[in-house]
Every structure is written in C-alpha cells, then in structure tokens.
Amino acid sequence: MEQVCVLGAGSTKYGKLEDSISDITVQASVDAIDSAGIEPREIGAGYISNVFGVADKQVHLGPVIMSNLGIPERPSLSIESACGSGSASFREAFANVAAGFYDAVLVAGTEKVTHTGTEWTTTYFSYCSDFFYEGQAGASFPGLFASMARAYLNEFKATEEDFARVAVKNHENGLLNPKAHLQKKITIDDVMASAVVASPLKLYDCCPFSDGASSVILCSEKFAKEHGGEYIRVTGSGRGGSSAALQGREQMTTIPSTRIAAEQAYKMAGVGPKDIDFAEVHDCFTIAEIVDTEDLGFFEKGKGVAAVREDATSRGGEIPINPSGGLKSKGHPIGATGVGQVVEVYDQLTGKAGQRTVKGATTGLTHNFGATGASCAVHIFQSV
Amino acid sequence: MEQVCVLGAGSTKYGKLEDSISDITVQASVDAIDSAGIEPREIGAGYISNVFGVADKQVHLGPVIMSNLGIPERPSLSIESACGSGSASFREAFANVAAGFYDAVLVAGTEKVTHTGTEWTTTYFSYCSDFFYEGQAGASFPGLFASMARAYLNEFKATEEDFARVAVKNHENGLLNPKAHLQKKITIDDVMASAVVASPLKLYDCCPFSDGASSVILCSEKFAKEHGGEYIRVTGSGRGGSSAALQGREQMTTIPSTRIAAEQAYKMAGVGPKDIDFAEVHDCFTIAEIVDTEDLGFFEKGKGVAAVREDATSRGGEIPINPSGGLKSKGHPIGATGVGQVVEVYDQLTGKAGQRTVKGATTGLTHNFGATGASCAVHIFQSV
C-alpha cells in the first residue's frame, strides 16, 4: 500500500452563493490545485461528492468539472452518502491512491441548495432518511435529532443549556474563519431564546443550509515529495453503517457507525483517542457533537456535556473540537462538508489556520456522517 | 493485487415496476446473494449506483439496502455517473477488492423513474448533460445523439436503415431474455415508420425509460473458491472521460472516453478486441452501438454499419453484440444498466443464458457510458 497524503486544499466561502454548482466546484478545485503546486494534467481522476445536483440542474458533475479544468479525458464520478458524502468520496479516493491505481486525484465536494428555499430543501433532505419509515411520517432531521437530544436529557445529567454551549463555542471558532457561513458571536441566552425547531432543539442548535465547495489533492507520498509542496499524511481511514431508520437502533444516544469507523481508523493509524490533538466532527445539531465526541472515545458516554461545560473542547482545551466553526458556524453544504473538514485539518497542520490555529497540533481527526449516522467515515491525519 | 471475481448475480425484470426503489434493489440483491451461495453477513460493503433517487423520494440508498439485508453496520455509498453509474460503481468495488480492503462486496445498480412520466424523466435526464451548454439550450439526449447520427451519415457510407438493423437485432435477442423490457419482434420497416424523435433518429432507434435493479457479488478469488459457487474472473478494468459537452470534441463520430477505457482494460487483461467472444455495449440509441463497436476496436471506423448488415454482430456472428437485448430491448434503468451488463456476462459465462447463449464463449466485455460518453468504463471477464 502507498502512503497517502493531502498535498493541497481549497474552499469557497460557505453560505449563500450566487455562482452555479459547477462554477463553485471549479473555484475550490483550482484553489486546491494551486495550493498543491501541480498542473491539472497531473491529476489522474476526479472524485466528486454531491447530493442534490438536481437543485441546480446539473448531475453527472464529474465530466463538467474535469472539462472546465482542461482535463476532460480523465475519469471521474460522483459519490453520495447524504451529509456524509464528502468523507465517503475521500475514502474512495484514499483507497484508489493507496492501491496504486492513481498517483494523484482531485477530491471535490459541493452543494448548491439555498436558492431553492427552506421548504424545498427540508423536503429534499428528508429523502436522505429511511423515507419509508421516517420521511413520509414527517420525521425530518430536526425531529430525529430532537429525539436523540430528548433521550440524552433523559438518560444523562444534561440540560438544554449544555447543548447551547456547543453552539456558542463553535460560533466563537467560526468568527475566526473567513470562509464561515455564520460569522456571528452568540450567547447561551441567544440560543435559549431562539425559536423552537423541534423541542428540545432551538434554531441556534441547528446548522444552517449552506452552499459551498471544498477540494483537496490526494496523492502518494512519492508524488508529494517530488512536487515539493506542503503535505500531511492520511494515517487512518474507517467506514461504518447503522440502521438507516433511527427506530432500528437499540440506543438513541450512540451512533454505531461512528464507533465502527473510529475503531478501524484508530487501528489503521496505530493511535487512540488520546493521541488526537483536535477533531472536526459532524455537528449538524448541537446534540450530535456531544454524541460524536463520546462515540469517538474522547469522553465516556454521558460525559460529553461536562467536557463542554469545562471548556475541554474549546480551542485552548484538552481536545479542541471543530476549530473551523464546524457545521454549526462554518456551515453545512452537505456534499462538501466531509471534504471541508479535511481542508481545515490541512490548514491546521500546515500553519495556514491563522488566528484559529490549535497550537502544537500534529494529529487531527475528521468525522462525518450521513443522515442520523446511517453512514459514517472517520479519517486520521498526521503532519510530516 | 487480489484476482477479483464475480460470484453471483441477480436482476429484477426491467420495465415499468410497481415496487419502491428500495424494494427492487433489495430483490435484485437477495437474488445475487442467493446465486453466490453466501450469507449477507459475509458482505463487507455495499456499492450502490443510482441517478434519480429523488424521483422515488429515497437518496442515501446504501444504508436502507444494507439495513433491509440485515447488515446495517456495513459501510455503503452511492455512485453516480449518469447512465454510466453502474460501471463506475462496479469499478470502485473492483478497486477495493483488488486492493484487499474487502473480501466480498455487493454491487447494486437501481433506478425507478417511469412513474414520474416522460416529460419529467426527459427533463431530469437532461441534467446529466453539460447543462450550461446543452440542457438549457434544449439539447436533450435524443437531439445530441441525433447530431452524432447525422455526422455519421455525412461522414461514412451509411443509411438510416443501417441504424434500424441494430434495433431489429437487439429486439431479436431481447425476445429470448425473460427480464427484458421490450419483448417484441420488430422489422426494419417498423423502425423506419416509427415517429421521428430527433431526425434521423426515430422512436425505435431509442431505448426506453425503464425501472429495474441489478446486483452482483464481487470478491477475491480466494473467497470465491472457499464458497464453492460458480464464478468468473474480472481480468480488465478501464475508465476514461470526454469533454462533457459534445461541442467540445474534435469529432462527433467517436467517443474518446470509450477508447481510453478500452485501452486500459485490454492492457490490464492482456488481450485485444479479437479475443473478445461477445460484448454488452451502451446502445442507448442505435447510432451509439455502431460508434461503440468501432471505438472498442471490433471494427474499423466507418465499418460498423457494414458489420451489422453482414450479421457480424448477431448472436451467431463473428462478435455478438448485446446478446441480452441491450439497452434498446432489455431496457435502460440508468443507475442499473452497467451492473445489468455484468449480470448478462455472468449468466453467459456460467451457462445460465438459456436460448440466448453465445456458444463457446469464454471472454466477455462490458461497455457502459454516461451522457454522450462524457464518462465511460470498460470491463473484461473470463470464465475460469
């Protein structure tokens, strides 16, 4: 197996964007190619992740992106795994480079939905649930995560204010990220006073609908060394699944796919949770970040809220979580999110994260799931 | 690299189906699992291919399929590359098994669109073109392939009756395929008298919109031997790309991605066009089959029509093309088609093709592309 590396990274701003889905994907990809210091023709294949290309009337995005980059003859494909599409695509690219099928590939995640309005978006996103059991019963994602939050409140010593702290922390980080969608300082009172979306979750417990694109160049270490740019190593990769419908799970306060993916990734990297310096995790709702940090092994089950209360997950804490601002503040263009997490880790480990830098970090982790965690991928990265 | 094999295969009937997209995918997958003689828990991951899950309100299909098969913890993802989705997904599964990431995986292609009606389907399919240049200008696929057909008529000694012969041949094959969508004998006169869709292409030059699902089990040869079922080897795999918009190509009568993918697949398999006993090729329109057979090296450029006239591509001919009936008669559920081609090759090479058996065949090829060939994959299979 080849040692796989991230050689370059680029992102559009996340938020409400005017350009087409093709254009924003090309913009992020050109930035990643420039950052890597390579020419487009050195790219062997394109791995695109996207969920609702139909919203911008463009599916089969791969050839459009490759053609716009001037390399139409290169193979490409799109990967979808709901909100976990980006990390699923990253994993496929990783496997192909590790196996030697390509020396270098483009991984580009993208989504363009805000122009369609909240009603359309909420409806279409519900198609990512197990629609037979959930979506058609009216159980869209705010409701499903509210069920998890309610179960957590019942099972452990936690309050709604604890969830609010996650939002406050991630908005603080996002203020330092020029690419973030919601660059706004908020307080616990702001969260508590915001409109109830699905009790106990309020508006500020929820990530926004965002447009955006993020790209990275993934390559063998041999290729990275020959091209002389700054690179980081991908040392662990894992994927797992959970029952598609929440009702099929034994417990509501843990996500099995996270545990499976994390175990594989830790094993491949030869490290454990204590070796991780910071993590970008899937905080589509504040409750998700709490559950994630427990399932990833950073804290015992039920102790995730105490960790937030004690600032252990803040940027200067024991294990900073979502220094980028996370889905909550940076935004959540669903097909791009998993790749955007890798962009943040690349920026952090190569000294490009500016004011939000996690000091002394050499090992980062990304965790990105689809729906309520029906699909999940975890990756571990180390600086050279 | 592990030698990769196809151990089992299953398909629903192609046509207008009543069951949901999830249900038809599970049906085909259960058939493939039974055919392989394995238990679902022996499957390491699921590779789903699908384009318009939104049409049946279910994207993020992987976890739904894995959950219904009783293996929710296994990772899965969906791959889209327009009408070439099935072969792109097959290739990813192939790469992962070849590299040793999994011993056995499920590859399932699926599509459910007929319930939405012709207008919706034509519109959505146009999102698979380069929408900026083609779809929004009204250039949907019948029009784009008509441009290719017109160019072919201008450039070579060919007639509209030559194209019609492709349809007649494929319908003859499809009559022997109980899973085929259009089981109807037609004549050249029928084709010539059918309604003009986009001149020079008439209704019977076009494949139908179909629902359907096809699945195969892909595994290492070690796994196949241990499980004792009938299997065939995947000896060659290639992928390529072409300019997304037809206008970006130098020639209209050749598809660059086919040539690139074929060259890679032949090289990996260590064979040439003359070693192929039969092929399932992408005949979304009759002109496509002519161009395909030339680009795959079976005939010189411009000679594909003579080959059809002389019955070289008929079931008893020199190189039988589309013994299954092809997209034209078997049908074209776009996310399933590329996997369905592999099902046909498996059935042919393991003696399960009944009356449509290509006698003495030991080597088969599949060729499946997206849009007007912007993406393409070619695979080569050999019996054990």
UniProtKB/TrEMBL annotation, chains A, B:
It is an enzyme of class 2 (transferase). Its EC number is 2.3.1.16. One of its GO terms (molecular function) is acetyl-CoA C-acyltransferase activity. It comes from the Archaea. Residues 243-382 form the Thiolase C-terminal domain. Residues 5-221 form the Thiolase N-terminal domain. One of its GO terms (biological process) is isoprenoid biosynthetic process. Keywords: Acyltransferase, Isoprene biosynthesis, Transferase. It holds the Pfam family Thiolase_C_1. InterPro entries: Thiolase, Thiolase-like, Thiolase_C_2, Thiolase_N. This is Acetyl-CoA acetyltransferase. It comes from Cenarchaeum symbiosum (strain A). The lineage of its organism: Archaea, Nitrososphaerota, Candidatus Cenarchaeales, Candidatus Cenarchaeaceae, Candidatus Cenarchaeum.
